[in-house]
């Protein structure tokens, strides 16, 4: 991945938070790598190498800065074109794809050859898939050492390591000190006996808009939304628990209060929360894409930092989309609440729980129950959900081929559950009413909004009417 040295150095000089996590600064004279927002003394440009990921910096032999803490940076925004395959492979790695299997298995999930996947990831991330997974584990462990009072053994397994010996060896090699030494050098770990982690983003962030979206769709007995917080129960890879999220604007972060009964799933849960709240979005790139657009630009100005909230996982997004077909948002949430009560689990039910349930008893019509059951059968099959992540057109074609799933449901599922930033449900009644266009006209109008049509849809939903005085010149 090519980086413009002059532009990167300007961002470093101004400590521009918009570039946080988009690249890292490796300083040859210190052997340290930093974030663009690091408050340390500005190094000379001749002593700096700019790299796209923390993994690339680690692989080059640099150690993370103890002052700006690269492990706290936002993740890299999704790349476009061919790079999108690498970007979505990175999301699978963040979800622990290489903790239990190798690169060959990851390539199979991505639907491409292992050699091609390695080449793509190295080209765009500056490191191999294995090194990316290793760095993810190391930096997540470093966060837990610095910010919590978890035992070192618990931190090892919570970070995805499979043995304490391997954990100590890799941490010492990468950071130049043993984990217990890091704990002694840390400050404030005893102040966080629970799991409370700040999750950074690139400012601005439309917290009121995200909360408002989640509030109207909250499922009874699963989600609770107040004026300042979002909370929900969840099940994840055999782990169960609950998390609550609040906003820390002064820190450019959300703060997650986490309860989980299987600590080895903690790193995967944090990745899910980041995705759910779209914390790795690039607001500047989104604004630039719509610069001068008479319909979207003023709406982005009215809701600065607009985000694309996601469901907790793709299967949940599909359930929400199918159950919500042709009924109100509140009605869909009520039906999902009945389904949760019927299955008796924690959080939104799994595909297996749905297949075992009497869906008619939850209030679903026969045709809708059949669609839900077909979706659950599809989602329960190995790799089916993974293959939907990589190519929007292929995902839409696959979904529309399923009984009872049309264009609106497929686009909405891709938009809310798979983070496809170019998904656009042009048949949505509210979108058509806000835009004042037919479905065909809106589809044509949205062509100029690529590759961020999903953010255009969110802007139209978020700001149905442009406030007076907000229109851009």
Q: What would the keywords be for this entry?
A:
DNA Methylphosphotriester Repair Domain; 473 residues; five-stranded antiparallel beta sheet; Arc Repressor Mutant, subunit A; globular; 4 domains; TATA-Binding Protein; alpha+beta
Describe the structure.
The structure is a single chain. The chain has four domains: 5-54, DNA Methylphosphotriester Repair Domain (3-Layer(aba) Sandwich); 83-189, Arc Repressor Mutant, subunit A; 194-278, DNA-3-methyladenine glycosylase AlkA, N-terminal domain (TATA-Binding Protein), CATH 3.30.310.20; 314-462, Orthogonal Bundle (Endonuclease III, domain 1). The mean pLDDT is 91. The strands form two sheets. It has a five-stranded antiparallel beta sheet. It is globular. Helix content is 46%, strand content 10%. Helix 3 (83-94) crosses helix 5 (114-125), helix 4 (103-110) crosses helix 5 and helix 14 runs antiparallel to helix 17. The chain has 473 residues and is of the alpha+beta class. 47% of the residues are buried.
């Amino acid at each position: 991945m090519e980086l413009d040295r002059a532009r990167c150095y300007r961002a470093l000089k101004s400590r521009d938070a918009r570039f946080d996590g988009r690249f890292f600064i490796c300083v040859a004279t210190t052997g340290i790598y930093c974030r663009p927002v690091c408050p340390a003394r500005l190094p000379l440009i001749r002593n700096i190498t700019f790299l796209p990921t923390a993994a690339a910096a680690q692989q080059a032999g640099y150690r993370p800065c103890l002052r700006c803490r690269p492990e706290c940076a936002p993740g890299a925004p999704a790349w476009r074109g061919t790079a999108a395959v690498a970007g979505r492979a990175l999301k699978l790695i963040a979800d622990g794809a290489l903790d239990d299997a190798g690169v060959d298995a990851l390539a199979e999930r991505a639907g491409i050859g292992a050699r091609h996947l390695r080449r793509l990831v190295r080209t765009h991330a500056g490191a191999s898939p294995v090194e990316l997974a290793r760095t993810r584990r190391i930096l997540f462990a470093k966060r837990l050492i610095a910010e919590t009072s978890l035992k070192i053994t618990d931190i090892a397994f919570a970070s995805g390591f499979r043995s304490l010996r391997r954990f100590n060896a890799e941490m010492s090699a990468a950071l130049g000190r043993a984990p217990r030494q890091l704990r002694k050098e840390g400050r404030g770990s005893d102040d966080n006996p629970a799991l409370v982690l700040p999750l950074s983003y690139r400012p601005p962030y439309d917290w009121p808009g995200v909360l408002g979206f989640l509030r109207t769709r909250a499922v009874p007995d699963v989600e609770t939304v107040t004026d300042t917080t979002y909370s929900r129960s969840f099940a994840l890879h055999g782990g169960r628990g609950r998390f609550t999220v609040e906003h820390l604007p002064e820190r450019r972060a959300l703060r997650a209060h986490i309860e989980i009964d299987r600590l080895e799933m903690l790193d995967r849960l944090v990745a899910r929360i980041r995705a759910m709240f779209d914390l790795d979005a690039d607001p500047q790139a989104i604004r630039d894409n719509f610069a001068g657009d008479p319909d979207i630009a003023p709406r982005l100005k009215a809701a600065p930092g607009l985000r694309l909230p996601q469901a907790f996982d793709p299967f949940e997004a599909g359930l929400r989309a199918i159950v919500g077909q042709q009924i109100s948002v509140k009605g869909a949430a009520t039906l999902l609440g009945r389904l949760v009560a019927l299955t008796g689990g924690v959080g939104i039910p799994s595909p297996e729980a749905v297949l075992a349930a009497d869906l008619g008893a939850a209030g679903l019509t026969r045709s809708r129950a059949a669609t839900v059951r077909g979706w659950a059968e599809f989602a329960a099959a190995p790799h089916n959900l993974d293959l939907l992540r990589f190519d929007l057109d292929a995902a839409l074609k696959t979904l529309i081929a399923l009984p009872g799933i049309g264009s609106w449901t497929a686009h909405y599922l891709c938009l809310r559950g798979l983070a496809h930033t170019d998904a656009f449900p042009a048949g949505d009644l509210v979108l058509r009413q806000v835009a004042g266009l037919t479905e065909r006209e809106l589809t044509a109008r949205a062509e100029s909004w690529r590759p961020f049509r999903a953010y255009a849809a969110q802007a139209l939903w978020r700001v149905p009417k442009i406030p007076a005085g907000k229109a851009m010149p």
